UniProtKB/TrEMBL annotation:
Its EC number is 4.2.1.17. The lineage of its organism: Bacteria, Bacillati, Actinomycetota, Actinomycetes, Mycobacteriales. GO terms for molecular function: enoyl-CoA hydratase activity. It catalyses: a (3S)-3-hydroxyacyl-CoA = a (2E)-enoyl-CoA + H2O; a 4-saturated-(3S)-3-hydroxyacyl-CoA = a (3E)-enoyl-CoA + H2O. Transmembrane segments: none annotated. Belongs to the enoyl-CoA hydratase/isomerase family. PROSITE patterns: ENOYL_COA_HYDRATASE. Pfam families: ECH_1. Could possibly oxidize fatty acids using specific components. It comes from the Bacteria. This is Enoyl-CoA hydratase. The keyword Lipid metabolism applies.
Length: 258
């Protein structure tokens, strides 16, 4: 796998692991890191042996936000002409399931990066927030939209307007994270979840992801219609034949990811 400067790219079985690695800056998301994550995502998406993508940081910080020192000198024209931060959309557009394993700070762009992933697993040390307002800006990687969809208007509004953080317990209660685990177990637990997913049929997991995500983009009637059409199409996969045969024959399925 490719070597990068600001991230580590590894794999365990069918899981690709992206570890943010700018420890001195608490994994602040600068342009280089953004480019490297996007390129790692492309590499994992194109690797037929990979069935899920895990994104994680360090014990102290998943990521303490976009890199404030890099942003400070920028003008409106700089950020507008570059469409600053738009490259992160590539992670949201990943077709394979993505899991964020978050310990420590996930603030600003860090919280947004975690929310770009499909499943968010938090260590009991995790802290989430959108503190951009304290810097005189607003979230720029989808925070105002994805946090609101995840936790509802009242809490999202409070977090975006006051900049206060929420701990892992509050984040779980609010529906932002799927579960909390002890910090020492975070990587193992997240890897186990990622491995479980990666061992399912890849095309069917991709279809399930697409169907759930559609619920954020459309009406209930259209969403249910979309789901039904995709459900029908699972019957065109070899893995549906194998999955159902395995059940009837009382054995474990061996998916071919086709
Ligand atoms: N950017 C750059 N450097 C950072 C960042 C950051 N976001 N966060 C931490 N660092 C650096 C610190 O500057 C420090 O470096 P140095 O040792 O060289 O001084 C090092 O990391 C360690 O940080 P601290 O000494 O501050 O560590 P503490 O444990 O005391 O505090 C905190 C940890 C509370 C996380 C603190 O570092 C902090 O508040 N960080 C900033 C959090 C923040 O505001 N994040 C939001 C950033 S804005 C954003 O993400 C989206 C902006 C959208 C703009 C849209 C434009 C289009």
């Amino acid at each position: 796998m490719t070597d990068f400067d600001t991230i580590l790219l590894g794999r365990k079985g069918r899981v690709g692991i992206i570890t943010l690695n700018r420890p001195k800056a608490l994994n602040a998301l600068n342009s280089q890191l953004m480019r490297e994550v996007v390129s790692a995502v492309e590499e994992l998406e194109n690797d037929s042996e990979i069935g899920a993508i895990l994104v994680t940081g360090s014990d102290r910080a998943f990521a303490a936000g976009a890199d404030i020192k890099e942003m400070q000198p920028k003008s409106y024209m700089d950020v507008y002409l570059d469409d600053f931060f738009s490259a992160w959309d590539r992670l949201a557009a990943a077709r394979k399931p993505t899991i964020a394993a978050v310990a420590g700070y996930a603030l600003g762009g860090g919280c947004e990066l975690a929310m770009l992933c499909d499943i968010l697993i938090a260590a009991d040390t995790a802290k989430f927030g959108q503190p951009e307002i304290k810097l005189g800006v607003i979230p720029g990687i989808g925070g105002s939209q994805r946090l609101t969809r995840a936790v509802g208007k009242a809490k999202a509004m409070e977090l975006c307007l006051t900049g206060r953080n929420m701990d892992a317990e509050e984040a779980e209660r609010a529906g932002l994270v799927s579960r909390i685990v002890p910090a020492a177990d975070l990587l193992d637990e997240a890897l186990q979840t990622a491995t479980t997913i990666a061992e399912m049929s890849l095309p069917v997991a991709m279809m399930a992801k697409e169907a759930v995500n559609r619920s954020f983009e459309t009406t209930l009637t259209e969403g249910v219609r979309f789901e039904r059409r995709v459900f029908h199409s699972t019957f065109a996969t070899e893995d549906q034949k194998e999955g159902m045969a395995a059940f009837v024959e009382k054995r474990s399925p061996v998916f071919k990811h086709r």
